Fold:
Amino acid sequence: MNLGRLVRRHAWSHPVRAALTVGAVAVAIFLFCFLRSIVTSLDAAVSQSASNRIITASAVSLFQSLPSAYKGAIGAIDGVDSVSRMAWFGGRYKSEENFFAQFACDAEILFEQYPELLLSDEQKKAFIDDKRGAIIGIGLAEKWGLKVGDTVPLIGTIYPRADLRMWEFNIHGIYRSARANVDEMTMYFHFHYLDESLERGEAMGPRGTSVYLIRLEDGYRGEDVAYAIDAYYEGGPQRTRTQSEAAFQADFVNMLGNLPTFLGMIGAAVLIAIVFGIVNTMTIAARERLRSMGILQALGFSTSVPARLYLMESCAFALSGGLVGAGIAYFTQDTFRKLFGTQIPVFTVETDTYLWAAVICVVTGLIGGAVPAWRAARMRAVDQLRRGI
Amino acid sequence: MSEPVIRLRGVSKAYRKGGEELQVLDRLDMDVEEGEFLALMGPSGSGKSTILNLIGGLDDPDEGTIEVVGENVSQLGGDRLSAWRARHIGYVFQAFNLIPVLTALENVELPLLLTPLSKTQRREQAEYALQIVGLGDRMDHRPKQLSGGQEQRVAIARAIAMDPTILLCDEPTGDLDRDSADQVLDLLQRLTSEYRKTIVMVTHDLKAGETASRVLHLDKGVVESQTA
Structure:
């Protein structure tokens, strides 16, 4: 027998009420973990961006292509180690509703520029050697059941084929990503294949590239090289806007509007509601237990013991609910990652989020128990015994 | 004659109820000897239960001094008062006041958490107390699973588990049938005769009064008469 057992017995003396309270906290903590993870996953892509890469896009809009001829001039600028093209393909897989990200890229330079893409040398070589070859992320492979050797048929939306048939790409590799800035839900294929198809009239669409990916030489600052590139094209034919990879990723996040603030507000509202819920549960419990707490004092327990018992019980509710909620968040993150697909490809519930959830549970528990604890500490035993039910 | 274990001198107490002041005790003097079984009788509102609350330090007097086991109770406060109460006072209430979510054994063990006894020692002492009240076979029952008489005997076991100097009993037979009440009274009498416990018992029950070694009749906050 100890006071912990008394707390546990009191907490579960009304099983339905206890289960509802724990369930409500669990839902709130799950929502907190889920909403925060959306924000942190978007931020992770920004914060883990490489510092030795910059990206050049059109100064007009990200959706405006840049001429392919820029590649040579950019490559000649001081501080540029390598430059490659990357074009947004925007195809649909088999039917219009199936979407994932596809990029046409300079395959020969891709792995040098993006060491985060992890796949075997054999798969890299097979991809580079086949003009219609492609590599896909492990997430994509799992979602669509794709494997090496499969053919991926894509409906061209930005680049429809002239014969109205689907594009076909041969999968030669399935990559994993070493960092959150590169997702595992993307397909890469040869820029040459797209460009040649356009050149021959086999497909229609804008010529040029969406962006240029530039790897810097050691010792050069991204800002200086970016300034030099943009200055070079200041007079046209098309002005450029060159940014660090982090800034480029941040622009994508900003395109979602004030989503982090909006999600934060929803999360805060849910947490405030749950604080009220626990306060309510504990206030009812305290009213029911007025006599029991008077008895404890009559037995010789100090006035602080009832207060401590309320705080312990409230924290037990909050932490039990938190554990359940965080557990649900942990075990469902893979499902949500697949569900979000390319929208939030690196959706992960980070350790920080669990720690914050634990802090919230403790604070919620303390607030929930504070009101009855304060009352119990102020009320004399004789009054508790007299007024108790 | 030995020093009284309980000594009340000039004790007054008033409560405010509905804007009116009710004088519950009026300059009361009272002594209780060690090992004595004292019954307090009188009509409702005569101040019987208030005396118990004052002796146990659950309430403070407006005037006067209350010395219990050589300690001026009204000068104790906070944790010192709690510790003193745990060491010297055992309570038995009319409504039993067991913790409903704990078993009989756990209820009796509860006050022992305030001692430095080990878990095993606590359990042994609680079992012993339950055996004294004749409930050695009901240890794992919750209050709901016990009869009124059994509940009250568990409450008495809880009150004596700490081996207190004084037992304060507030209408201990008030909610019991005659047979159960007699068992409880026998038990209380045994506690004074065999274990030399000092008992102060508030009661309306004439038979309970007869069990006591002395009866104080109270009315309007003063001792009206006394019978030995």
In short: Residues 304-340 of chain A form the longest helix (37 residues). Chain A touches chain B through 24 residues (CB under 8 Å).
